[in-house]
Amino acid sequence: MQHDPSALPRRNIGKAELFFGFLKIGLLGFGGIAPWARHIIVEEKRWLTDSEFAELLGVGQVLPGPNVMNASILIGDRNQGLIGVVLCLLGQLVMPLIIVVALAVFYDRVASVPEVNAALIGAAAASAGLVLGTALKMVRNIRPTLLPLGIGAAGFAAIGLLRWPLVPVVLVLVPLAIAATWLGRRR
Q1: Phi-psi region for residue 41, left (φ > 0), alpha (ψ -120 to 50) or beta?
Q2: 16 CB neighbour count, 10 Å cutoff
Q3: Which of 31, 58, 108, 132 is the 20 to 30 Å CA partner of 156?
Q4: What number of other Cβ atoms are within 10 A of residue 71's Cβ?
């Protein structure tokens, strides 16, 4: 029999735990934060289940701004209110800010070296692989029904293949997904 994690009482995450958890996400996730955010939030800290993380990431995706940053705001607010939001944001931003400034100073000195450009292309490919790997891991753990897979495939086809603009696609698919989920839960 499969255990339902949503039946467990919600755990209140402390201020220091939120800050240091998101500090770790910000440090480790430099260049590709979603895979590390999922690993730390779901697997390591067990703050959320895979389904809860996917829901927050989905909400974060349709809101303006980075999806993991939006999800961190929701997690901070749920657990510590406005102070939790500030702690999650600061934790997630402090180390990347320091690293970006240091890298900008360094890159200014080596930008004309061809090997540096080759390294950046390799880093971009590795980042794309991380995103794809995280998506596949989430799909495997969540085991979505055909409807969410179909909506995801429609979004991919519309934006990735047909090159339709993001905003109209989201404005059509999000209400469809909400309506389909609502109708599915009424049964």
Answers
A1: alpha
A2: 10
A3: 31
A4: 27
Burial class (CB in 10 A: 0-12, 13-18, 19+), 112: exposed
Hey, what are 49's tokens? 């289940």
8 Å CB contact between 133 and 35: yes
d(CA 33, CA 185): 32
Q: What is the pLDDT of residues 37-66, one digit of tens each?
A: 999 999 999 999 999 999 898 888 888 888
pTM of the model: 0.58
| Residue closest to 19 by CA, chosen among 72, 65, 74 | 72
What gap in Å lies between CA 80 and CA 74, rounded to an integer?
A: 10
Q: Give me 71's structure tokens.
A: 């999800």
Two tokens, residue 46:
């067990």
DSSP state, residue 5: G
pLDDT (0 to 100) of residue 185: 81
Q: What residues have CB less than 8 Å from 80, skipping those under 6 apart?
A: 13, 14, 15, 18, 87
